[in-house]
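Example 3.2
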Amino acid sequence: MANGVRPLSLRHTRQEIATRNAFPSLTWRCVQHLITWTSEVAVLGDDDNWHRNGAGFWVNTNFGFGLLNAHNMVKLARRFKQVPDKSICHLEHPTSDSKFDFTTSSRAHIFFQSNGCSGTDNEINYLEHVQVIISLSYPYRGAVGILLESPSGTKTVLMETRPRDNSSVGLTAWTLTSVHQWGEPADGRWTVKVGAKVVEGQVGEGGHLAEFKWVSRLRSIGLGHIAIMTLMMRT
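Structure, written as C-alpha cells:
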C-alpha cells in the first residue's frame, strides 16, 4: 500500500511489523488504515501521478499512499480503535445475453451498478480493496490493458500493456486488485474498460473476453468477449 499494488520494501515491512508488535491487538486491516492516514505525500510530490480519490486520500500508481512514517503510525496506533469485521459484497454482471468485444481501435466497457449490498449482512459503507477477476482470450496478451473507474471518478490502471508478454493464452481467472478507492462509497456505477494496443509483430487483431468477475473489498465500513463479470466488495 505504500507503493500502490506492488510489494512493500524491506524497510517498510519492518516498520509495519514493529507497529503490530507494539500493539498486538491491531489486525492487518488496522495497519492498512494506519498507513493510509499517516503516509507522507509532500516528499514525493514531484511525481506527476498523484491524484486525490473520492474520499480525499492522495494516491499514486508508483507510490501508493506515499512514504511510510513509522513515528506517526505508532502515535496514531496508541489511540486507534480496531476496525469492524470485514464485509464481502459480490456483484455479478449479467453477461449471458451480452457480448463485449474489444480491438486495438475500440474498448469494451463493462458497467456495474452497485448499492454496496445495502440492507444485507454484507452491506458496505467505505471501500478498502477492489478486485476484478477476469478471463479473456487475445492473440497477444501483452497488448491488453484494463482500466477501472469508480462511481467517485477515481481512475486506476489495473493492467498496463506489457510489450514482452507475447503469450497467446490470454487470461484465465486473473485477479486484479486496487486500493486507490480507499474510503470511497460503493454506491453508484463502476466502469471497467478493456482494450488493446497495436504491437509490432502481433498476430491477429481480435480477442474474446470469456469471463469477468469483479471483487471489491469495502469497509462496513484485437476482439474480446466477456461472458461472466462479478464485482466483489470486502471490508
